[in-house]
């Protein structure tokens, strides 16, 4: 037997790693040489053994490649820190190791309860790259749900999986046929699925499944490591930020403590609003504006414009409601309050952002401001009592010891020989509670003293004596300003000017009657003087004297029967007459105003005609009736 026809040639083929087809060469040569059948059988057996040895060597070589690949993968993954880099490296390595067309990975979404496409390698379909799989749907959903590897050589025809239109559409658009999916496990939990797929039919061997499972195990650990590293970095960043916050807070607390000590010292030493404003701006920087309850400036440090009135009211209301300073644009507002009473506001334009401790400084300054304002009010109220007692004596006892009255006035800076007007404020400004009454009196005292005048409470009313000659203007100013303070319409009657104790007392009586007349005329919530009431003003003296016989005779002769009829029967003839004249003699409008039927008005006016005579509507009689009704209305409140 020649060398070429012996089994030795198979060893040579194995030594040079020949292809499987080359192992048929010795048999072909032996048959051509005419070797006997027993020798051919021996060569066939040698070929089979040689091919088995070759297959074993091939599997070992491939295993070495796989192990080397896994080692390289572990080494590569260990050097990666960014999660996205880790995921891309895992998928790329899986595609290369298994030699597939596509590799991809899905991760589980615990919040939504499904799994979603996270990264792909070799994919060309955007639809496929956006897939989300419900647990149990498709091959991937089944792997994610069960934690078991699944493989299919033809996905579209495999009935083991729950097919959905969305998944099948994405797989079809990508052109995938054979798919292998293995779970990414961390302990007993499945965090995702790693896939290898071909665009043509391909059976995946057990060795390939094991290889992808091993790669998935490395991948799961690498993913967890990357996550832990990211969480550690995030925690370190948060710790660094917290440390910076603590340092900033510590600095803020030190500033707040210094500001507190400084402002406390201001209160003890009797400092003013300017000192408080300077202390705040020294600590926080910027500019500060202090305003009273009416929006008037108390102090200003730095360049800051006074805010719009509506913006100021809204911001102060918000600060009072929240019990904190509030921000509106570049400005910070802190309400200055004492209990439920609004005393004013601090408006700060800081140089930079305010932290919580800085806000506390502004709020503490508002508290100190409230203390200073209350102290000022206490001093003013003490002075106001002295000034009020002087005004009360001027009104009630002007003839008693005139020299003493002049002396007391000079000590308070009041010149009784200068013209003054007297303003009487109605009961509508004074609520039932004592605190509200005191608040109105306190306001009036401050209002009068700042203008060089006096204020006092007398007979349930508040009286102001103000320098000047415009009684009507003073009454309107008092009504307007006090209405803002009380939040309700205020009526003010005035008279004057007058000089000297005796004239001032008489002028007060006229102002008081003017206030009564305004109520009788339905002019509540307004301010006016005696001179501005026309003929009513000329008659106020008579109305103020209930014993005046001429007025009494006139009323009795003109409307007396109607008044007596109402008093006896409890009817409303007087009110009907007032409404009738008030609407220009229109029966329909008078009925509408009285909320009765027109026939009722007609019947009442017929009764008036029976009482006053048929000619009561003639022009000259009608004028007398209207004048008598007006005098009657003025006279009743006066009594």
Describe the structure.
- The chain is of the alpha+beta class and 639 residues long.
- It has 5 domains: 7-65; 81-232, GAF domain (Beta-Lactamase, 2-Layer Sandwich); 270-378, GAF domain (Beta-Lactamase), CATH 3.30.450; 398-546, 2-Layer Sandwich (Alpha-Beta Plaits); 548-638, Arc Repressor Mutant, subunit A (Orthogonal Bundle), CATH 1.10.10.2840.
- Helix content is 59%, strand content 16%.
- The protein has helices at residues 8-15, 25-33, 37-79, 83-98, 126-129, 138-146, 165-174, 206-269, 273-284, 309-322, 356-396, 402-411, 434-449, 471-486, 501-520, 535-543, 549-569, 573-582, 587-594, 598-612, 619-638, and strands at residues 102-109, 114-121, 132-134, 150-152, 178-186, 189-198, 287-292, 297-301, 326-328, 331-338, 341-349, 420-425, 454-458, 461-467, 492-498, 527-529.
- The strands form 3 sheets. Strands 3-2-1-6-5-4 form a 6-stranded antiparallel beta sheet. Strands 8-7-11-10-9 form a 5-stranded antiparallel beta sheet.
- A hairpin with a 4-residue loop joins β1 and β2 (114-121).
- α3 packs antiparallel against α4, α8 (206-269) runs antiparallel to α9 and α15 (501-520) packs across α21.
- The protein is elongated, with a radius of gyration of 52 Å.
- It starts with 7 loop residues before the first helix and ends with a helix.
- Mean pLDDT is 80; it is low at 541-547.
- Residues 82-233 form the GAF domain.
- This is Transcriptional regulator, CdaR family.
- It holds the Pfam family GAF.
């Amino acid at each position: 037997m020649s060398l070429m026809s012996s089994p030795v040639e198979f060893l040579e083929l194995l030594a040079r790693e020949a292809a499987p087809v080359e192992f048929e060469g010795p048999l072909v040569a032996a048959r051509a040489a005419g070797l006997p059948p027993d020798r051919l059988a021996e060569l066939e057996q040698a070929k089979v053994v040689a091919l088995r040895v070759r297959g074993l060597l091939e599997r070992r070589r491939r295993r070495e490649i796989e192990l080397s690949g896994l080692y390289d993968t572990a080494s590569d993954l260990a050097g990666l820190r960014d999660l996205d880099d880790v995921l891309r490296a895992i998928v790329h390595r899986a595609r290369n190791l298994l030699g597939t067309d596509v590799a991809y990975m899905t991760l589980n979404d615990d919040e939504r309860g499904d799994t979603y496409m996270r990264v792909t390698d070799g994919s060309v379909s955007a639809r496929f790259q956006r897939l989300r799989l419900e647990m149990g749907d498709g091959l991937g959903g089944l792997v994610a749900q069960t934690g078991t590897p699944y493989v299919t050589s033809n996905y579209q025809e495999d009935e083991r999986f729950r097919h959905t239109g969305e998944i099948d559409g994405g797989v079809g658009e990508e052109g995938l046929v054979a798919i292998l999916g293995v779970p990414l496990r961390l302990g007993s939990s499945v965090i995702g699925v790693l896939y290898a797929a071909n665009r043509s039919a391909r059976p995946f061997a057990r060795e390939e499944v094991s290889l992808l499972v091993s790669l998935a195990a490395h991948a799961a650990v690498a993913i967890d490591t990357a996550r832990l590293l990211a969480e550690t970095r995030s925690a370190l960043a948060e710790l660094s930020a917290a440390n910076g916050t603590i340092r900033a807070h510590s600095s803020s607390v030190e500033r707040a403590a210094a500001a507190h000590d400084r402002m406390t010292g201001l209160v003890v030493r009797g400092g003013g609003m300017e000192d408080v404003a300077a202390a705040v701006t020294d600590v926080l920087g910027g500019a500060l504006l202090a305003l009273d309850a009416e929006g008037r400036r108390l102090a200003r440090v730095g360049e800051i414009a006074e805010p719009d009135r509506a913006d100021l009211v809204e911001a102060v209301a918000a600060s009072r409601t929240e019990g904190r300073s509030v921000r509106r644009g570049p400005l910070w507002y802190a309400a200055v309050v004492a209990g439920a009473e609004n005393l004013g506001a601090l408006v700060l334009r800081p140089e930079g952002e305010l932290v919580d401790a800085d806000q506390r400084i502004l709020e503490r300054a508002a508290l100190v401001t409230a203390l200073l304002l209350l102290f000022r009010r206490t001093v003013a109220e003490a002075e106001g009592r002295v000034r009020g007692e002087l005004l009360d004596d001027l009104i009630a006892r002007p003839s008693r010891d005139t020299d003493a009255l002049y002396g007391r006035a000079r000590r308070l800076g009041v010149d009784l020989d200068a013209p003054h007007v007297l303003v009487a404020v109605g009961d509508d400004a004074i609520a039932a509670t004592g605190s509200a009454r005191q608040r109105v009196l306190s306001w009036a005292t401050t209002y009068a003293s700042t203008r060089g005048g006096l204020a006092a409470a007398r007979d349930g009313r508040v009286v102001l004596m103000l320098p000047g000659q415009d009684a009507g203007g003073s009454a309107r100013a008092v009504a307007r300003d006090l209405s803002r303070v009380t939040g309700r319409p205020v009526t003010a009657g005035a008279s004057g000017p007058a000089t000297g104790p005796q004239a001032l007392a008489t002028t007060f009586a006229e102002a008081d009657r003017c206030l009564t007349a305004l109520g009788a005329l339905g002019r509540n919530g307004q301010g006016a003087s005696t001179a501005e009431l026309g003929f009513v003003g000329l008659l106020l003296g008579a109305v103020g004297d209930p014993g005046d016989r001429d007025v009494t005779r006139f009323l009795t002769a003109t409307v007396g029967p109607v008044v007596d009829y109402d008093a006896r029967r409890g009817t409303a003839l007087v009110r009907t007459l007032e409404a009738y004249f008030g609407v220009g003699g229109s029966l329909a409008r008078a009925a509408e105003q009285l909320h009765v039927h027109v026939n009722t008005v007609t019947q009442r006016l017929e009764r008036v005609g029976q009482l006053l005579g048929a000619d009561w509507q003639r022009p000259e009689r009608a004028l007398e009736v209207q004048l008598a009704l007006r005098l009657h209305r003025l006279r009743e409140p006066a009594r």
